[in-house]
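Translate sequence into structure tokens.
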Amino acid sequence: MQRSCNSWSPVSFDTLNSPGSSMYPVLDPNQPARPEFAGLCALAVMAKAPRAGKVKTRLAPPLTLEQSAALNICFLRDTTANIAGVSGAQGILCYTPVGDEVAFDHLLPESFALIPQRGDGFGERLHLAAIDLLACGFESVCLIDSDSPTLPHQALQQAVDELAKPGDRIVLGGSHDGGYYLIGLKQGHLTPFERITWSTASVFAETVERVGEAGLELVELPLWYDVDDGATLRLLASELLEGKRPDFVSVGGYDAKASRAFLQNLLENSAPLQAAAGIAE
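Result follows.
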């Protein structure tokens, strides 16, 4: 297992962990691997600080930028609560930007820890997140999007269980839009993140190709969806408010209580937004 970090960019961890900077511990992969993480899978949510105009901007319209950021907070609450119930795992928030740690205070379960993102492109950030978490002492890592609040709990548990088996492999959960909501690995393989046309409908297929080129076993998780525009917001509203599961999924979703409450509030208080987001009484 890869335990070293050869290109850690300068970050002052003394500052990150100073009193008042964050209510959650901030992990430092430069320090010796922590024995309490041995045998555990890091379930790491890739997230930006939930500031208006910085997150979920493709949801505005139909939402305002402030409402989009508020919904993003709901997504973080639901996703991390879901992760907290997975056996054999530790919840992590892999965040950006450094210096905005307090933006996540009181949003995550108490058991969570933070680790900063580094790198330039999206693929580099994913790869380096895996490298850093393995360096902290985790047996395996799953990198998870923050846009799928109803992601089935069984998919998360399956990912952890598959990575706990002997031998090397990649676990991949595909999204309906052609991307993926989760990638899991036991070593810091670079190939699955290379030559990927990020933010397109070919991400999943290209990643499967890269895994094959690396000669790695691939385990696919159930298909799901992320919420990043008006159409997928309507899917989420239908699932949470009307109990209608998307026709392309084969399993039931997580009971995303915070996201449901947000959408219910829209239903009760904003008729224009009801129509724009496809939320019907």
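Note: The helical segments are 13-16, 65-84, 122-135, 153-164, 203-213, 230-242, 257-269, 271-277.
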